[in-house]
Design brief:
homodimer; alpha/beta; Rossmann fold; 6-stranded parallel beta sheet; 4-stranded parallel beta sheet; DNA-binding
DNA sequence: TGTCATAACTTAATCGTTTTCGTAGTTTTA
DNA sequence: TAAAACTACGAAAACGATTAAGTTATGACA
């Protein structure tokens, strides 16, 4: 509640001097600074970010747009882990993160861009959203520094998980285990899905594997219901696969249920693999073989890039950065 | 980028008129308003929250302190669900949420209270933290409107999940299924744990169940390692329980692994129950019998209370609100 | 015709900081 | 010893918005 003015009165100096003293400018005497700092502490002075932002045009605030199907990215294992890492990193640089309002029902709501301007975000990070939404495009095309995660735009910094490499290594690992009849239940269409699927086909080809069309099926991410069904359909094929890849670890749970219900055992009767490396999959038997996306790194790199873009716009390269994942060898793929 | 001044120049009216027109005050002519709104739209005008906050002393910002052991509450299933609901609710009232910086390593960092004052939060919500931390106490005792979740302070609004009722109903359900030798692996000491444990003892007594001391064991929340071990120890007892309660669903996974490793089946050989009702537990077989905490309601009520406290401080009751959970009947408790 | 409301503005202060440009007073330099 | 340089501080404007208080012009009313 105490302001610079209060301090200046007590110290008998001008407001300017107090401001400069507390910001450690060089043109204030050392003992004056000391005195001012002491009084400031006694008064419990705390600067006012609004006033500062108004004057300096820097809020040290970063807008976060994380929305998934359910209108929120917070309960999404993968994205919340990325966000967590992002948050920790920007906080080290003195930034705070604020969510860009995404409740679209509200009358008189602001668009993402309007909201970002209103709050004066120094930069924004986007992930887990519908990147074809006109509002998103508008925000990305604006003059606000932006970093996107798991989606790339021209002339904008983007950080993506290496889906191509991830699927390749996973498939190579499974192939090394002796499998060649491998099915892939992939996620709903998106850039991520396209990359993974292409990589799947290419790698299969390179490894000399023949993948029948009926082995490639679509489900949705984190949708156990569809994977349950499709798994049953795959197992009912006259020539069923020996290993099934799922859209992600969570979706794999649906498959696990289907398999267990038939009295089959993982991995002795059928092998499976997930994607993501979520916590639950690490702690349940059979420990899921999966590709662990480096959420720590993705969030951290996105944060560093954004801060760099904000603070050193001229010297920051606009680049697309790929963060590779790692195959986690669980016990869900049999060596045959 | 356009300000009221820019609009006022174009419209040939004063800045005050523009401000009042855009805020729909009554002392501006209808056609003037119309014109001003039109020009504002053309210029892509967006108000500046910093300037507004500076003048009105209201930021429409809410500080969130969600920290768990790992210095983050974001990857915590239960709390991220609560936060998600909280966020959606306050957004409806026009508030944005910002995380209170919790990285304690930073030199020259602000305390939680300092940070909250710096950002001028209209209110703060606390959850999932060490409520004995002096910094937390300082924040709670300050004049900033505060709501705590799953912990209660005198003279401060608190919203808690009904742990007493939850455990009671769960135990009654299990008792109804025919169990009387029930073990409880509880979480690390905390207010939540104390409530659950007391409720466990009391309910057991009321139901006429004898609970041997060796049936009550301590683990940590979300710690599969300890539950794995302790489950084994319980099963090795000369007179093992027929049902084991775990600190939470996630921790139950450790127990599930121990049980399966011994070739035992759930629930025919041993019954188990969790707590929380996390997503993963709903989608895995055997579907876990658990107490689903109403995260939606907890977050929503906390949000409404906080907004009320901010906007109508005089008429808002300082109360402690308990949100009841619900026993979810899975397939992990045998009827015997 | 003079008085009074009312409608529709404007003026000017203010919120808390930052920052540029001074300006004294002191010390160094030539 | 006079000019130059440096030190330590202050005055004042500015950031963008809000708002209390004042000012016209217009019309109503007696």
């Amino acid at each position: 509640m105490a302001s610079l003015k209060d301090i200046s009165k007590i110290c008998g100096v001008s407001v300017a001097t107090v401001s400069k003293a507390l910001n450690n400018h060089t043109d204030i005497g050392e003992e004056t600074k000391e005195y001012i700092r002491k009084v400031a502490k006694e008064l419990g002075y705390s600067p006012n970010s609004s006033a500062r932002a108004l004057k300096t045009r820097r809020t040290y605030g970063i807008g976060v747009l994380f929305v998934d199907e359910a209108m929120s990215g917070l309960t999404h294992d993968y994205f919340s882990a990325v966000l967590d890492s992002f948050k920790r990193t920007v906080e080290k640089f003195g930034y705070d993160i604020t969510f860009i309002n995404c409740c679209k029902e509200r009358e008189n709501r602001m668009s993402y861009l309007e909201h970002s301007r209103y709050r004066g975000f120094d930069g924004v990070v986007l992930a887990c959203i519908d990147f074809h939404d006109p509002e998103v495009i508008e925000l990305v095309q604006s003059d606000i520094p932006v970093v996107t995660i798991d989606h790339l735009f021209n002339d904008r910094i983007g950080v993506v998980s290496d889906n191509v490499g991830g699927i390749r290594e996973l498939l190579e690992y499974i192939h090394d285990c002796g499998h060649s009849r491998i099915a892939y239940i992939h996620g709903a269409p998106s850039a991520v899905t396209t990359n993974r699927l292409s990589s799947f086909y290419r790698t299969a080809e390179q490894l000399g594997m023949e993948i029948p069309d009926e082995y490639i099926r679509e489900a949705a991410y984190r949708d156990t219901h569809t994977t349950y069904q499709v798994t049953n359909e795959l197992l009912d094929l006259p020539d069923p696969p020996t290993c099934i890849l799922y859209p992600d670890d969570f979706a794999a749970f649906g498959g696990i249920n289907a398999i267990r219900e038939r009295g089959l055992r993982i991995p002795s009767d059928i092998s499976i693999a997930g994607y993501d490396g979520i916590r639950a999959a690490r702690h349940l038997e059979p420990k899921l073989t999966t590709v662990r996306q480096d959420t720590e790194q993705i969030g951290c790199v996105a944060a560093r890039q954004l801060v760099s873009l904000i603070e050193r716009p001229k010297s920051t390269l606009i680049e697309h950065i790929t963060i590779s994942g790692r195959v986690i060898e669980g016990r869900s793929v049999a060596k045959i």
